[in-house]
Fold:
Amino acid sequence: MQNPQKPSRVLIIDDDSVFQMATKLAFKGIYEIRSAYNGDEALAILRNQAVEIVLLDIQMRTPDEGLKLIPKIRDLDPDLPIIMTSGMTDYESVREAMRLGASDYVGKSLEQEELLHAVQRQLENQKLKTRNQQKDFQARLEHKTHRLVGNSPSILALRKVIDKARASSFNVVITGETGTGKEVVARQLRKTLEDGTLEPFVAVDSATIQSTTAESQLFGHEKGAFTGADKSTKGIFEEASGGIVYFDEVANMPLSIQSKLLRVLQEKEVTRLGSNKPIPLDFRVVCATNRNLEEMVSKGEFKDDLLQRISVIPISIEPLRKRQEDIPELLAHFSKKHGRPDLKWSDDAIQCVRTYTWPGNVRELGNLVAFVITMAESNEIEISDLPPKFREGLRGSPAVENGTHGKSLYEQVADFEKQVLGRELESSQGNISRMALKLGMDRSHLYTKLKEHGLQSSRSAQKKSE
Ligand SMILES: Nc1ncnc2c1ncn2[C@@H]1O[C@H](COP(=O)(O)OP(=O)(O)OP(=O)(O)O)[C@@H](O)[C@H]1O
Ligand SMILES: [Mg+2]
Structure:
């Protein structure tokens, strides 16, 4: 990428030393020049030095040496601007040069003005291209980071609602238990702008807007508005202008702040502290909560008129336990996100995870994957790789009563556990300390387990061996 501090480096590839000299003179103080007098020299320079643009003579040692060089330059750098130059206007060659990937053509003349313009134009195009690529990269990254994974009927319905809400400009309230993906949904509500970027999104934790600094946080301030205001600062609404202000856990917003928010929503303008000039703004408010705001209104804890304003489009997200069919896809998604796309979740492990109640919803599932990736010794994830709370949940759960051998999953896990313990007991010749160490278990827990499985004769064996 180009460094704005440094002049761009131009490589002139031309066997004509007079043209080289004249161009150097014309570009002096504007660009840094490198010279090559034939194709081999040019390639050697391009391989070893950063060059931002190339001026390439069509005719050198042979009439088409310049043309033949184009694909070789393209191999080294597919994006490097190449301006063809020629003393003779041979349109056939120019067409061929363009076909091979040249960016522009300038006929040689004593006046270098046209050449200077062409170089400037190409460098500007290049800058724009880089900027667009960066934007594109950011948009793709954003899309990847905040993907809404799942294909359960409730997620499919949710996607439809999101699409409709996105197309409108109404305020939205998203409800759902903790970790269900409220912020993911809020981010999906951003419209894509004409240049391919997403509209602004400013997330605010509603509880952190403090009365003393609220006005400045929300509306911004001018330099000198109060002690310590050493520069003008935009407030939340101004930052989000043209996009979305996301108030996370809006139920925690103090009543005094609720009044201020209501006023901004009514007036659609803000006045920075220390200024008397209102700034008209265009933004949309998306609020999230896991509480029942109507109930809060009836208790006087939330302003009724604010609720009316913010909840034009209510969106609710189902807890994960009610859309278990999303779990396999989410497991794969988080495995990939944590850099382990190779992780294979056995059917039993998936079944076991599906029966869990997921109080922390998708966030908790992401944590489970992180845990498993850290602890598991192979890429095949079995029930034994899951933390105990997932296995505990299996006991008596009707969802797991259809084990493959007519046994419930819990019974199958218990059988497996017994098998492992029996085998280890034998191989450690009843040495409980060694066995506990090997299995990474607490000794007293191991005793209990052995007893549970009717393997307690080991205790006497263990006594003998210790
Ligand atoms: N459907 C989904 N697909 C992919 N990732 C998801 C999905 N839902 C949630 N997540 C991920 O789970 C985590 C929690 O999501 P998010 O922060 O949006 O939840 P939340 O409802 O806002 O939680 P809280 O109430 O605690 O603020 C994030 O890492 C998010 O990327
Ligand atoms: Mg959240």
Summary: The pocket of adenosine-5'-triphosphate (ligand 1) is lined by residues 147-150, 176, 178-184, 248, 288, 290, 333, 362-363, 366 (CB under 6 Å).
